[in-house]
Specification:
With 314 residues, the chain is mainly alpha-helical. Helices cover 52% and strands 0% of the residues. The longest helix is centred in the middle third of the chain and has 18 residues. The termini are close together.
């Protein structure tokens, strides 16, 4: 039975292949020169903007998981060694090998991300009766069962907010690695945080909500049972709880006041201007009859759970 949506996207995760936590495979390369430590006041962020602070909190767990400092925007020093590592990580895990590809992936996460496929499958499940759903779930096992259990959990817990923080926090991961890789300068990386931070600010009221939404999204993405012991989920949850406990009041990593404060953009640059670089050039060509006819096509795809319910075979 062909598995759809998020598992097919696992190769695209910033945490896969070369990072700790996305699989049982040992990481082949990790950026390992974090600088500075949380005791250092300099957070490597624009002092007249709060987007760096948003970005650090959004990417904190993954940065820490890979021996970086979540108190320093970018997580690591911009050394040549770290630059090469970041370039390799983005290439192998996201198929990103240029500034243009990086910006396209950031825009995709902001506009749709993994939550688009989540909505599609969740909608099919939501239209099934409890009896039909139970019957379909009994036919599943292994990763496929976990996948739909986590799909159901995310929908029941978060509804349309499901996977929102998962996608938005990955924007932070990408811009910080993109900065270390040299595809973005530090101001650009912080400016690109703005639409992701705006989404979080509109839909959540605390970092507790954001981190839980991110962690639940990870469970669906990676097929991890959130009720199991000693998993990548429990490890990430433990990291978040440790970071939250150890933060100092005078230098909060997870400052909930950000959710009630105005976003302060980076002066002299905007994310709109940066993303304009990847806008398609206008073409003065007429639409062909073939192109017109294709606009009337309908999408007949079904998710696996709905196929099982209707008796379709693979």
């Amino acid at each position: 039975m062909k598995k759809k949506i998020l598992m097919a996207l696992c190769a695209c995760s910033l945490m896969c292949s070369t990072f700790t936590g996305c699989s049982n495979t040992a990481p082949s390369e990790v950026i390992a020169t974090p600088e500075p430590t949380p005791k250092v006041v300099d957070h490597n962020e624009e002092k007249n903007s709060n987007l760096g602070q948003w970005g650090r909190a959004m990417g904190s767990v993954l940065i820490y998981l890979n021996d970086g400092s979540p108190y320093y925007f970018g997580g690591y020093m911009t050394t040549e060694e770290n630059k090469k590592s970041a370039i390799n990580i983005l290439s192998s895990s996201w198929n990103i090998s240029s500034r243009k590809k990086l910006l396209k992936q950031i825009q995709l996460l902001i506009e749709t991300g993994d939550r688009e496929s989540f909505y599609e499958e969740a909608k099919d499940m939501d239209h099934m009766s409890k009896k039909e759903l139970n019957k379909a779930m009994k036919q599943l096992s292994g990763d496929l069962l976990i996948h739909y259990q986590m799909l159901q959990y995310n929908w029941e817990t978060w509804n349309k907010k499901g996977l929102l923080a998962w996608d938005m926090c990955r924007v932070s991961h990408l811009v910080q690695w993109g900065y270390i890789a040299g595809y973005l300068d530090c101001k650009e990386a912080q400016a690109l945080i703005e639409p992701a931070a705006e989404n979080l600010k509109k839909n959540f009221t605390s970092w507790e909500e954001v981190q839980n939404n991110w962690l639940d999204g990870y469970c669906l993405f990676a097929n991890v049972d959130r009720n199991a012991s000693n998993t990548d989920y429990t490890n990430r949850l433990s990291i978040y709880q440790t970071l939250k406990k150890e933060q100092k009041q005078e230098d909060l990593l997870y400052d909930d006041s950000l959710f009630t404060s105005e976003l302060v953009p980076v002066s002299g640059i905007s994310y709109q201007t940066i993303l304009k670089e990847i806008e398609p050039k206008e073409k003065n060509t007429k639409k062909t009859d073939t192109a017109k006819s294709e606009t009337g096509k309908t999408d007949t795809k079904q998710t696996e759970i709905s196929k099982m319910e209707t008796g379709a075979k693979q």
